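Z., the sequence and structure:
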Amino acid sequence: MNASFYLKTLIIQNFATFKNQNIGFRPGFNAIIGETGSGKSLVLDALQLILGGRADKKVVRRDTDYSLIEASFYCEDERVKAYLEVEGYPVDGTEVVIKRLIYKNGTSKTYINHLSCTITFLANFARKFIDLVGQFENQKLLSETYQLQLLDHFAKQLPMVAIYHQELRELRQLRRNHEELTQSKTLREQRLDYLSFQLQEIERLNPSSQDEEDLLKKKHLLVNLEKTQKLCYLVKENLQGGDGGPGLAGHLKQMTHVFSKNPELFGDQAELLSEIDDKVAILEAAIERKLNLEIDPDGLELILERLDAYQRLKKKFGGSVESILQMQVEFLKERGLLETLDLNLDEIQTRISKIEQDLMKQASVLHDKRAQAALRLGNELTVKIRNLKMTGATIKLQLDVLSELSENGITRACFIAETNPGEGFFKIKDIASGGELSRILLSLRQILSSHDSISIFLFDEIDTGIGGETAACIGKALGEVAVHGQVIAITHLPQIAQFAEVLVVVSKDIQAQDREARTESTVKEIVGKMVQKEVRAMAQLT
């Protein structure tokens, strides 16, 4: 096969009974074999860690500081490259490298393409492009939600399901918004009263920085009026003169007389003297006005009230006139929103109704397509499981129509099976054994692998509780899945191993080291004609 994404090598160091092993894999069917207890399941454990599995410090080999697992994948799959590129882990050439370090204190580090990443991201990447089939996957098969996902995959309706989910998320958000606005409506009148009171208080004052400054000046002037008038009398006397002689105005008059008599000397300065005389006159008038001021108790009280209002509002709204004005803008905006609440509710309800109608149409179309595909999938599954020695068994997909929209439309799907002809159909979770579930799951992989986004399949415990002709059928089925992707499976049965293109043989030795015995697992790869020779040797041992 011409695989675009597959596991090339797996390096295992200081991992349980593995000291330092470099395991090679190839496209097609790779079978991991070995005697019971040799450590073959540890190879799959290491792969599970590479796929984001939970790390346990117990795997760190004794007398070492850490375990290292490193997997190198050949990659020409543009989907994989694009996914990693977007997430910030670009592929250099045609190699994707995943590495995990597990320390003896229980901590671990994870890397993709030599860049640190989270376990969550690694697990999401693995779920998208690598399929681990084991006891957990068997349990997933009992979920009706998962069964519906498998049907959609087979019916090639995943793009339509994605669109449905997107609109459903929008609908739920709109419903939340509508509920929040409805709750707000019950508090609206109370809030509007509060806003109106605050706005009226601000509007009565009509605040500005200049107004506050003028008020402070007027207050200062009125409070200090007696002192002001004494000073003004002093200034007036200096301007107009008194018992001590002429004032500034008198001196200016004398100077004007001198300038007019001697134009040849002071002609150029006459205009300047006239300007000074005019300004002195203006000054005299201003001083006279200040002298004529009288304390108006009502006027002073009004000024003090306004200044008190300024202080009160500044204390409430931020400490400055600018903050008062900013709060006024925000209050006006909020009042406007509350006053249009009914309009918003109507708009949202209209949008909700439209999306509900659209989703119901989508769900109906989706259900019809699912119903057509369910018949085909049931027939194909029946053929496959019978080929895996579930003789006489029949698989169907029972579809029910829901009265309301759900996460997956209006369809409820359920795999039902008749394992004994004539005895009736029952849900597979009620009648299927673990071995039968594994065979049903393998049959699904046979059917779905040809148009799946996943190209690497790891099978764990696929041969539990079987043997003979059934094992041979399962081996053949694994080979069929491997046509469309890389298959890696642990097996102890030669009937399965005979279909593999690569045998990963795990063995265990006990070696003397520093006067004590240490167990060490080693690996060798067998390909080509030597595969069948090894299989025959397996058969003689079983």
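The longest strand covers residues 394-406. The chain has a mean pLDDT of 83.

Let me know what you think.
H.
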